[in-house]
Amino acid sequence: MANASLLRCSWSSAMTDGAGDMVEKTRLPLELQSEIFLCCLPSQELTVKTRGPPILFLRVSRLWRDIALATPKLWAHLSIAFPRHSLDLCESWIKRAQHLPLSLTLRGDLVLGDRALELLDDWAQQLHHLSLDVGTSRDADWSLRYISMVEDLPCLKTLSISSSDEIYFYDADNWLEILDVAPELVQLNMQIVIPEQSRTRLASSEPLVHESLERLQVAYAKGVLQHITLSGLKELSLQFIDFDPERLKAFLTRSSPTLVYWDLNPPLQWSPVMTDCLRLVPSLVHLFLRIGDHNMNIITLLATSSANILPNLCHLTLQSYFTTRIEDVDSIIRMLSVRRLASPHFRKLESFRLIDQYPLNSDFAAALGKLAEDGMNIRVGKSRQDVE
User: pLDDT tens digits, residue range 347-375?
Assistant: First the structure.
């Protein structure tokens, strides 16, 4: 609030007295004025066409323009849409960031944006966060081909590839080569499909080893897990049930990660191999699980102390499959009750979230209420946002 008040005072002075008087009236150090400007950046992604900050700061007065241009942090984030955004403006914007880490989002028809993708060579040493929002499979392969050709992405921390449509990468080499040239990558989010039959140089060789990657989120895993080894993995999200349990087990075995969070959409039929997968991640603290009455075996396993399953689990979220109603609520209550008790076999369960489109029956609601009275943090809702 104090920063906003200071900004309003400066704004008023600039508009009524002009830039000349503003220079005389401003007593704040440049560093503080820069911080105030940073606090006024909008939360949404910045584009070169924006009418708000930081472009707005260039138009108020000469003093404000000088402050904005002397504050590289204002220009370190940019979203570029193709083909409508002028690349000259984009280049000018990025230059104002000087040598600061860059966060870029590339959207639209990336084939038409080949010049911008080539410019990534110039920005590669500064690039910390890169997001690709592609429209077609052609865009996806084209853009990743350019990025994979960059010799070095030494500072890249996060890479996100997404689309509103179902996108297929037929050349898996592209994203694997990005892992090769981005040794500091911490987070990889791929909401795309890499078909199992896609060409890859690693198909007949050892999986690529990446030690820095901590968070992996993939929509379709069939063309992914068999090609990588991630010893530093902390968070794993497998959102669709296309993976092979044997390959998942092999991935976890060779990676031996200290996994803390797992968003899992298990196979329609639970198998002993999936049980083995759970035993390979005893460090797991938070499990997000999509279930239905067809794979309630895992709920029974969680309630069995002798099974040696997830001894450190503290937070559990269950989501029903699509519009399927969970009928076997007794198994859930039994598991929660067992996990809530102090035990030498596992830690006490601290929180439980249930995402279901259907209202709870009275007995289920009453049982959850008793667990809540006992101190368990419980939330129920129809969407992920409802229970967060």
Answer: 999 999 999 888 888 999 999 999 999 99
pTM attached to this predicted model: 0.82
Q: Which range marks the domain in which residue 65 is found?
A: 1-71
Alpha-carbon distance of 96 to 32, in angstroms, equals 19
H/E stretch holding 128 = strand 127-134
Answer whether residue 341 is part of any domain: no
Residue 84 lies in a domain: no
Q: CB-based contacts of 45: which residues, under 8 Å, 6+ apart?
A: 77, 79, 105
User: Is there a domain that residue 36 lies in?
Assistant: yes
Q: How many domains does the chain have?
A: 1
In a domain, 135, yes or no: no
Task: Work out the angle at residue 329's Cα, subtended by the Cα atoms of residues 365 and 240, and round it to the nearest 5 degrees.
Answer: 115
| 124 CB neighbour count, 10 Å cutoff | 20
Nearest to 218 by CA among 172, 254, 181: 172
Q: Which residues are within 8 A (CB) of 190 and not within 5 positions of it... i.e. 6 or more apart?
A: 160, 161, 175, 217, 218, 219, 224
- DSSP for 140-180 reads HHHHHHHHHHSS--TT--EEEEE-SS--B-SBTHHHHHHHH
